[in-house]
Every structure is written in C-alpha cells, then in structure tokens.
Write a structure and sequence with these properties.
Layout: H1 17-24, H2 34-40, H3 56-70, E1 74-79, E2 93-100, H4 115-133, E3 138-139, H5 146-152, E4 157-158, E5 164-165, E6 173-175, E7 179-181
Antiparallel strand pairs: 1-2, 2-6, 2-7, 3-7, 4-5
Length: about 190
C-alpha cells in the first residue's frame, strides 16, 4: 500500500468534509478570528522626529524587502493624486502588497479561506507601524480601489471582473489593504 501524504500536491481536498468546513463555513463568532483583532487594533502615533533616509529608490527597496520578509509575494508602489477628494489626507504614495491566495476570500468565508486576508492584514499593519516609527504618516485603513492601485503599481493587470492577475501567481492572489503614506518613495507606475 502506497503512503499518501495529506499535503501532497496531487491530493485535492474534494472529498474531505472537514476541509470544506475549514474553507467555506464562516465562523459562528468573528471574534474567534485573528483578522478581527488586527482590524480593531488602533494605529499608533507618528514618531515626532523624521528619520534621515536614503534616496527614495533605496527606501522603496527597503519597504519591499520588509514586506517580503513579512510574507508578501509581491509589493509595488503606486503614485496617488494628492488633490483627489478620495485622498483627503493628501498621501502621495500607496504601498500595495499581494499575498498568495489558493482560495478566493470573497468566495471562501471560512477561517481557512480567509488566511490570505489575515496574512495581508498582518503585513500592512506591521509595515505601516514601521513607517510611522520612521516619523512619516501611514495608514492601512481599507478603501475601495486597491486592486486598481495594484495594477497601477505594475503588479499585474485587471481581468474583466476587476480582479488582479499577475505573471507570478495568476489569479491566485489577494491584495491587502494598501498603505497610504507620505514616506518618500519611488513609484513603480
């Protein structure tokens, strides 16, 4: 009898009712999810003295490297319109992080289906806190249009449904809340 490993790539969880529950059944109490704890956490204060930085290109690479360290599959920088009414704080840049998503969180409400959301929230929460510690404003509050920002940051293209498709991950990607910031960065667009 051949040994069957549960994490084998050929093993699809099609017939496993526990896996189906894990991916597709929303939690009875959202308080049992890490995503709720991160969403409810207050953003910290901006450090009063700005850190002396390298060039925007080097700072951008540091931001991207740190995002990758925290688990982002891809990170891009989009330039924002500082005069746009949808950007009342006048942030000039958005840091857009993408994480791998084996299941679409919009269609898989279970705790397992929401793992990309959890990973994205962790990345943007910690990265925006780091930017504030450098003395610059940063917020990762959810706003509509983050998929479009990801396309503007050259992470991929939008399909007919408005979802991002990337060369590296295809459609298996989730865009975390974009970090809007005044940290001097070099945009990818």
């Amino acid at each position: 009898m051949a040994l069957k490993l549960p994490w084998s790539k050929t093993d699809s969880h099609r017939d496993d009712p526990y896996w189906d529950f894990f991916i597709n059944t929303p939690p009875a109490d959202v308080g049992n999810t890490v995503t709720q704890m991160i969403r409810k956490a207050q953003e910290g204060n901006v450090f009063p003295a700005k850190t002396e930085l390298h060039t925007p290109e080097i700072t951008t690479q540091h931001v991207k490297d740190l995002a990758e360290y925290f688990g982002a599959a891809m990170t891009g920088i989009a330039k924002l319109d500082t005069k746009d009414p949808a950007n009342p704080e006048g942030y000039p840049f958005a840091v857009v992080c993408a994480v791998r998503a084996d299941y679409d969180p919009a269609k898989s409400p279970g705790i397992g289906g929401q793992v990309p959301v959890q990973n994205g929230l962790f990345i943007t929460f910690v990265l925006s806190a780091w930017i504030r510690e450098l003395g610059f404003r940063a917020t990762a509050a959810p706003q509509p249009g983050d998929e479009k920002l990801a396309a503007e940051a050259k992470l991929g293209t939008l399909d007919s449904e408005g979802r991002l498709v990337t060369p590296q991950l295809g459609a298996n990607v989730y865009i975390a809340n974009a970090i809007r910031t005044d940290l001097p960065l070099a945009f990818d667009g």
